[in-house]
Design goal:
Length: about 290
């Protein structure tokens, strides 16, 4: 399902014919799989942007781990802790509903090695790396417990991301049952990735470190899937049943870069949705390449 965004940004988005043609082609492409989709693209140098359903609210899934990473680097920059400090690996967390304890199931996590080392210590940096690169839920919950979810949301507000809501860690079933979920929009994710791309999230050094982590992403079925090997993508995915997201920064060999966010929900054929979003990423790449030729 697609609808024209009501945001006033659309009035000024891009009057050029190529951009308008691209937008119509993307709308047509995303109308084929059953589901709801959102797109937010911004070229960093030209500031050209394309937005579709950019203010639609989505379950954030693991895309919320990027805001969490930003908050970690922010607190480290304030000397609240060092990224080299260690946390004890544990698998017991508190529900935001009633503070009752719950544990994660390693079979439901995309990373399971950490579960073999409970009681040992790992650096905050290493946990952040695992949280982003292999989307470790155990690392995520340990990090969120350290920085506090409410601080993550407050930082997003300071950055102008008014709809990203980070309430909790992962697999808090009682919170999920009450509809207390982490949420995002394509527009807000575009905002924060643009800040990272411009070196304006925390500070330039922190942005470079975060980009280095994001570049090592192991799940590459959407944004990078149809791009040439010499194109680098610093990104974070998110997926649960019926939901597939990807969000990040695309770096071209000639030094140009752009931000792209692709979100989906209520997806019936997940393989088809993922392939379609990968197609959209390829279409946007071809558009950006065409800008250089003009």
């Amino acid at each position: 399902m697609l609808c024209e965004a009501s945001s006033p940004f659309n009035l000024f988005a891009q009057p050029d014919t190529a951009m308008q043609n691209l937008k119509q082609q993307i709308i047509e492409q995303l109308s084929q799989p059953k589901g709801t989709f959102a797109v937010a693209f911004k070229d960093i140098s030209s500031k050209k942007e394309l937005i579709i359903n950019e203010k639609e609210i989505f379950h954030a899934a693991s895309t919320m781990k990027t805001p969490v990473m930003i908050e970690v680097f922010r607190q480290a920059s304030k000397k609240k802790f060092s990224l080299n400090d260690s946390l004890v690996l544990k698998n017991e967390f508190r529900s935001i509903v009633d503070s009752s304890s719950f544990a994660l199931d390693s079979s439901d996590d995309s990373e399971f090695e950490l579960y073999k080392h409970l009681g040992e210590k790992r650096s905050i940096y290493d946990l952040v790396y695992q949280m982003i690169v292999v989307s470790s839920n155990l690392a995520t919950n340990l990090i969120i417990e350290k920085v506090d979810a409410s601080n993550v949301t407050q930082t997003m507000r300071r950055y102008g991301a008014n709809d990203i809501q980070v309430l909790r860690g992962v697999e808090d079933q009682k919170a999920y049952d009450k509809g207390l979920n982490n949420t995002t929009t394509a527009y807000d994710l575009m905002l924060i990735f643009e800040k990272i791309a411009r070196g304006k999230a925390v500070n330039k050094k922190a942005c470079e470190a975060m980009i280095d982590i994001l570049l090592d992403q192991k799940f590459n079925t959407i944004i990078p899937a149809q791009l040439p090997k010499d194109v680098k993508v610093a990104h974070k995915t998110g997926f649960i049943t019926g939901i597939h997201h990807d969000s990040g920064i695309v770096f071209l060999p000639d030094g140009r870069k752009y931000v792209l966010v692709l979100l989906s929900k209520n997806v019936e054929d997940e393989d088809k949705a993922v392939k379609t979003m990968a197609n959209v990423s390829g279409m946007i790449y071809q558009y950006v390449i065409s800008l250089k030729k003009k």
